[in-house]
Amino acid sequence: MAETNTRIxxxxxxxxxxxxxxxxxxxxxxxxxxxxxxASILQHERIEEALAYHLAQKLGAEDMxxxxxxxxxxxxxxxxxxxxxxxxxxxxxVRERDPACRTYLQPFLYFKGYGGLQAYRIAHWLWREGREIxxxxxxxxxxxxxxxxxxxxxxxxxxxxxxxxxxIVIGETAVVEDDVSMLHSVTLGGTGKQAGDRHPKIRRxxxxxxxxxxxxxxxxxxxxxxxxxxVVLSDVAPRCTVAGVPxxxxxxxxxxxxxxxxxxxxxxxxx
Length: 271
Fold this sequence. Notes:
Layout: H1 2-29, H2 34-42, H3 47-59, H4 66-79, H5 82-97, H6 105-109, H7 112-128, H8 132-146, E1 148-150, E2 155-156, E3 161-162, E4 168-170, E5 175-176, E6 181-182, E7 187-189, E8 201-202, E9 207-208, E10 213-215, E11 219-220, E12 225-226, E13 231-232, E14 240-243, E15 248-253, H9 261-264
Parallel strand pairs: 1-4, 2-5, 3-6, 4-7, 5-8, 6-9, 7-10, 8-11, 9-12, 10-13, 12-14
Antiparallel strand pairs: 14-15
Helix pairs in contact: 1-2, 1-5, 2-3, 3-4, 5-7, 7-8
């Protein structure tokens, strides 16, 4: 366990070290926030410790006080150390892909997409541990606070960027692989009352535009791009751009092998 903790610390250390530098600078520039920055970031030694505290302070309420929720988060990070790596990677891609993001402080403290995603990761751990009612409770609280509704059973990879995030819905059997980007009001949903595997599978490098609805047990191929406002009801081939209601392929492959649409965030469609 000690070796694992050392590996996680080293892998996430670049993001964590820069986050601490930014917190020190911000505290000096804005003394009104100094205590908040110290409590949320500077008093902690590792990114997962800071996240456990910060998420608990955000999500805690009368029905579950922050101390109890923080202990749950610490249990999750201790049992699944890769959560810290995912958190650092998620923060890094926000900084890389969002032109409005100038520091790591912004997503860590304020961005609903980042906060909602990290809280989902705790809920997902609870779900896998068989603690479903507590996972649902956390999902409900995240939805109330961040307007991000991710079922705790959904499977989401690392390096995922949810921009603005308001109105995001991700269903129970959805799969979102690594390095995906999506904007606000995206739905990864079902098409009716059927049970079982009923939600989309989003492969690596996909970009989903604002307001897009991807419905049913369909596959969105690696590096595909879904235009804003589209309703996708069938499989999308890798490296393909689709648009419309219902969505149809337009203009052939969206780009070359690298970089992926999720990285470029290019939403202009040439026809």
